[in-house]
From TrEMBL:
Name of the protein described by the UniProt record: protein disulfide-isomerase
PROSITE patterns with a match to the protein in the record: THIOREDOXIN_1, THIOREDOXIN_2
Organism for this UniProt entry: Vireo altiloquus
Taxonomic path: Eukaryota, Metazoa, Chordata, Craniata, Vertebrata
Biased composition (Pro residues): 513-524
Keyword tags: Chaperone, Disulfide bond, Endoplasmic reticulum, Isomerase, Redox-active center, Repeat, Signal
CDD domains in the record: PDI_a_family, PDI_a_PDI_a'_C, PDI_b'_family, PDI_b_family
Signal sequence extent: 1-17
GO molecular-function term, one example from the UniProt record: protein disulfide isomerase activity
Length: 524
């Protein structure tokens, strides 16, 4: 027994000692991590500074321009941005720019998130010269090139100083499109507003001039912003109003509009320009570019375009090229070309002539009639399936919607969906189960409508799925369902006459945000 006891101690002793050492190592590691968090040391990941509450002030003091991404580890948009953000950080560092990129896990660093009002992810803010109280919201594109250009504009002068006619001539001819601000005083308010616009429009090259010889050379006598192009008008002038000064928003709008060609062709390279100009209406000429006869229709189309610049953007869509992808949005096939459509961008309403007429006078007359509200929109509608009302979920289309949804004897609950929407797919089984539960109720109808193939005159669907309840009785009432999308919640809503007994807080309204409305260009 004594021997066994001695042998046991011999075996267990080192093991017990090892456990003590492991505990000490764990404690040391935890203390080390704690010290790292409390330290103001700044670590980097792929050239992106990793910031937290204790090193944020140091980062601001060490970097003149610091673009900080406030993110959440679980956020899909943040995960998508991460590679581009890292690439931009690397490019800026390689060119020895004073601009650096950083990131903050806003879910862990709640004090920083609160201080800077972070309510969504990712949120990007620019800190300049260590100023912590007035960061600038990022307004550029969410790709590496957009981030780099946006930061470069803020790291250096946003406009190149043109000192004489030779330099100005070379600058104006250097690219297809440049903007030059002519100001008598480069320190005045108008010039400063111009520099602000130049800093924001990072995809356009800006110059600035104050020399009298340059005013004379370009036929100017007062402060003016000039847009120089190698297409359409060679020089477009935007004089600065002496009493109102230079309005940055208005100048930006004008430059975006006039930077576009009078008639754009819809391509992979131009679609961002087309929608970025935010012109309220798009007039579309669908044609087959392989047909010389159809190509000739562009002449009349172009002749009408000048009268509506800024209000209507004229776009040519090749039905056999990049435009083939958008035909379904208009309920069209390549065989429908040539044809014309006008789209109101605010709500994607589409208008078409009773009979296509491609003359410039007919196009002008048609557009003017639409702008004056004299033409009804052309609404898409699929054909109703033969068994649309025999299944528990009734299948609605544009041409049958009114008679079903506004039946005064029925309470109708409609799901507006897109076939490609993952959120719609996820709730499909619940919607079927709900319909099965209420299939014997004469006063309740569970229905669905594919909103990518059907449109309604007075109801615009902005996201998928959208759920609307149309109660029985007189009047055209409609209630949007905004709660948890499951069978039990749907049932409570229906049994309570189209309301929920206790509404959840707004922040808990949906399990997931809806898919955005389908926006195939050129209808936005």
């Amino acid at each position: 027994l004594v021997w066994l006891l001695v042998l046991s101690l011999a075996w267990l002793g080192p093991a017990l000692g090892d456990e003590d050492k492991e505990d000490e190592l764990v404690e040391e590691e935890e203390k080390k991590k704690e010290d790292e968090v409390l330290s103001d040391e700044i670590k980097e990941e792929d050239n992106v500074l990793v910031l937290h509450e204790h090193n944020f002030a140091r980062a601001l003091s060490e970097h003149q321009l610091l673009l900080v991404e406030f993110y959440a580890p679980w956020c899909g948009h943040c995960q998508q941005l991460a590679p581009a953000f890292a690439q931009a950080a690397t490019e800026l560092r390689n060119e020895s720019s004073p601009a650096r990129l950083a990131k903050v896990d806003a879910t862990a660093q709640t004090a920083l998130a609160t201080e800077f009002g972070i309510t969504s992810y990712p949120t990007l803010k620019l800190f300049r010269d260590g100023n912590r109280t007035h960061p600038l919201a990022y307004t550029g594109r969410m790709d590496s090139q957009g981030i780099v250009r946006w930061m470069q504009r803020r790291a250096g002068p946003s406009a190149t100083l043109l000192q004489d006619t030779d330099i100005a001539t070379t600058f104006v001819n250097s690219q297809d499109l440049v903007v030059v601000g002519f100001f008598k005083d480069l320190r005045g308010e108008a010039a400063q507003a111009f520099f602000e616009v130049a800093a924001e429009m990072v995809d356009t090259t800006f110059g600035v001039a104050e020399a009298a010889e340059l005013f004379q050379a370009y036929g100017l006598s007062a402060d003016t912003v000039c847009l120089f192009k190698k297409f359409d008008e060679r020089q477009t002038n935007f004089p600065v109003d002496p009493s109102r000064g230079l309005d940055t928003a208005e100048l930006t709008r004008l430059l975006r509009i006039h930077s576009l060609q009078l008639v754009m062709e819809f391509t992979n390279e131009t679609h961002l320009q087309i929608f970025g100009a935010k012109i309220p209406h798009h007039m579309l000429l669908f044609l087959n570019k392989s047909s010389s006869e159809q190509l000739s229709l562009r002449d009349g189309f172009r002749a009408a375009a000048g009268d509506f610049r800024g209000e209507v953007l004229f776009v040519v869509v090749d039905v056999t090229g990049h435009g083939a992808d958008v035909l379904s949005f208009f309920g069209m096939t390549p065989a429908d070309a040539p044809t014309l459509r006008l789209v109101k961008m605010e709500n994607n309403r589409k208008y078409q002539m009773e009979q296509d007429d491609f003359s410039d006078s007919a196009i002008r007359t048609f557009i003017q009639a639409v702008l004056e509200g004299k033409v009804k929109p052309h609404l898409l509608s699929a054909e109703p399936p033969e068994d649309w009302d025999t299944r528990p979920v009734k299948v609605l289309v544009g041409k049958t919607f009114e008679q079903v949804a506004f039946d005064e004897t029925k309470n109708v609950f409609v799901k507006f969906y897109a076939p490609w929407c993952p959120h719609c797919q996820a709730m499909a089984a619940a919607w079927e189960e709900l319909a099965e539960r209420y299939k014997d109720r004469e006063d309740i109808v569970i229905a669905e409508m594919d909103s990518t193939a059907n449109e309604l005159e007075n109801i615009t669907i902005h996201g998928f799925p959208t759920l609307h309840y149309f109660p029985a009785g007189p009047g055209r009432k409609m209630v949007e369902f905004k709660s948890t999308r499951d069978v039990e919640t749907f049932s409570k809503f229906l049994d309570n006459g189209g309301t929920l007994p206790v509404e959840p807080p707004v922040s808990e309204v949906r399990e997931q945000p809806p898919c955005p409305g389908q926006s195939p260009a050129p209808a936005g």
